Amino acid sequence: MAHKIDPDLCVACGSCIDECPLGAISSGDVYKIDPDVCADCGTCVDACPNGAISPA
Question: pLDDT by residue for the chain (56 residues), tens digit each?
Fold first, then answer.
């Protein structure tokens, strides 16, 4: 199951995008994680300074 980004906590800093080894995160007004690409490795969770990413 893919991780999810809480849009209320995300400040679009880009830390998660830089850390995702599979490129599963896309930027924009609201950052999104593609569940078909996400491998649940958790690097984005560790990289997020605001705790905006959690398991779905």
Answer: 789 999 999 999 999 999 999 999 999 888 999 999 999 999 999 999 999 999 87
Cα 45 versus chain centre, distance: 7
pTM of the shown model:
0.86
Cβ neighbours around 23 below 10 Å, total: 9
Would the CA dihedral through 1, 19, 44, 7 be positive or negative? negative
- Is the dihedral angle over the CA atoms 11, 15, 18, 24 positive or is it negative? negative
